[in-house]
Design brief:
2 helices; single chain; signal; 424 residues; binds 2-acetamido-2-deoxy-beta-D-glucopyranose; Bulb-type_lectin_dom; 5-stranded mixed beta sheet; glycoprotein; 5-stranded antiparallel beta sheet; globular; mainly beta
Length: 424
């Protein structure tokens, strides 16, 4: 599609189809789809979707035309800033692509006015590009991932270097989890309103650990294992800046053509790969990798997910097994399990109860501070936001917890937790 400007109005009759309801209705689908579509396979389309009434997101979806009912949203333009009905998407003669509210206020744009853009196209890889007369990309959607990486897409130093989870199925705004490419590695963080800074709950440091230089990019790649293509390797490959140093980790190895894959940081903070097997007529999407996994502990168990057991719970073998209480009894876990509300932060208004043989989700990937157990307690007592502290008596390490969430059961009773509870 080259230079003519086009305007597309959102239709009033859009019906709700959520990001996670994979069966979209064909009729409505047609109405919401902007004229851009790449050729299959796999097919990508630029479309509007909504998960709450009258709040639309411009997004790219992935699926095969042979089975139009199977779409996955893989990129979005205006997360956290939805548009209402009669919004317009305009590709102007100046080369700027603009999504505007009905009253003309700009909701999102590519900022490419007068930068030599002569056309707009959606590549078969799912990359939406604005290109110049030499065919160079002035802007590309691959540079702006939100929670998803497509094959060939990267996190980049000096660009978007992290994925941020979505808040919930209905709320399309930033959630608490992020996958961050750091100078020396790749890590997962949880950020809540209580915690002053994001908390590390997983690090790839055993597989990616840069000694010299800094990471330039991390890219999702898929390649056949051998010329025959009996198996396909799905990799996260990394490159070190200004160096020939590089490497990769194989995440999955499906025994079919796995070219149509994407990686997503989910609402729950897990990382999964979704692969489309085009030989299959229905149920063709398969989860080919799960970082936190119930059955396969090559990577991590589900217990290491901060919110696996909701706001409070003890997790063992990926299951929530107990709800701690100040009376010292471990009750059966349910979704309502929560720490008791503190009435005040004065020293005489609360006490601690002790849990033996537990780790906080922070304990595994952060070192904690080297202090005496009693000083660890004092630190928590003098900090209103501290909800409890965790201590390893073997290593004399202390962790202050601003969020309790999921505690993991460990064999060693020298790993202890002290939870604040109100004095009644
Ligand atoms: C694998 O799938 C991709 C995309 O669907 C396709 O372009 C490619 O030709 C396939 N490879 C083989 C060996 O069939
Ligand atoms: C959208 O446009 C239609 C047709 O012009 C109009 O009837 C409707 O009131 C508009 N809605 C809003 C929210 O502007
Ligand atoms: C990744 O980084 C390397 C080294 O700096 C660079 O040569 C390469 O072009 C980068 N790839 C992407 C996809 O950005
Ligand atoms: C607990 O940890 C200590 C020190 O690391 C070790 O000596 C001991 O054997 C562990 N106990 C169990 C039950 O794993």
């Amino acid at each position: 599609m080259s230079s003519p400007s086009f305007t597309m109005s959102l239709l009033l009759s859009l019906s709700l189809f959520s990001l996670f309801a994979f069966i979209a209705q064909a009729q409505n689908t047609m109405e919401t789809t902007v004229c851009l579509a790449s050729l299959p396979p796999p097919a990508f389309q630029l479309a509007f979707y909504n998960t709450t009434p009258n709040a639309f997101t411009l997004a790219l979806r992935m699926g095969l035309t042979r089975s139009e009912s199977l779409f996955r949203w893989v990129w979005e333009a205006n997360r956290g800033n939805p548009v209402g009905e009669n919004a317009t998407l305009t590709f102007g003669t100046d080369g700027n692509l603009v999504l505007a509210h009905a009253d003309g206020r700009v909701a999102w744009q590519t900022n490419t006015a007068n930068k030599g853009v002569v056309g707009l196209k959606l590549l078969p890889t799912g990359n939406l590009v604005l290109y110049n007369s030499n065919g160079g990309f002035v802007w590309q959607s691959f540079d702006y991932p939100t929670d998803t990486l497509l094959v060939g897409q990267s996190l980049r130093a000096g660009g978007v270097s992290k994925l941020v989870s979505r808040a919930s199925e209905t709320e399309n705004k930033d959630g608490p989890y992020s996958l961050v490419m750091e100078p020396k590695g790749l890590a997962l963080y949880y950020k809540s309103a209580n915690s002053p800074k994001p908390l590390l709950y997983f690090s790839f440091s055993e597989r990616i650990n840069i000694q010299t230089g800094t990471l330039d990019n991390v890219t999702l790649n898929v390649s056949p294992d051998t010329d025959e293509g009996y198996a396909y390797n799905i990799n996260l490959d990394y490159q070190v800046a200004k160096s020939s140093s590089s490497g990769g980790i194989i995440l999955a190895r499906p025994k079919y053509n796995a070219t149509s894959t994407f990686l997503r940081l989910g609402i729950d903070g897990n990382i999964k790969l979704y692969t489309y097997n085009d030989k299959v007529d229905w149920g063709a999407w398969e989860v080919t990798f799960s970082l936190f996994d119930r059955d396969n502990s090559i990577w991590e168990t589900e217990c290491q997910l901060p919110e696996r057991c909701g706001s409070f719970g003890v997790c063992e073998d990926s299951q929530c097994v107990a709800c701690p209480s100040s009376s010292g009894v471990l009750l059966g876990w349910s979704k309502t399990c929560a720490p008791e509300k503190l009435t005040s932060c004065k020293a005489n208004s609360f006490h601690y109860y002790k849990l033996e043989g537990v780790d906080h989700f922070l304990s595994k990937y952060t070192t904690g501070s080297a202090t005496k157990e009693v000083d660890c307690g004092k630190k928590c007592s003098s900090d209103c936001k501290c909800l409890g502290y965790f201590y390893n008596q073997d290593t004399s390490r202390c962790w202050i917890a601003y969020d309790l969430k999921t505690l993991t059961k460990v064999a060693n009773s020298t790993h202890v937790g002290y939870i604040k509870a109100p004095n009644h």
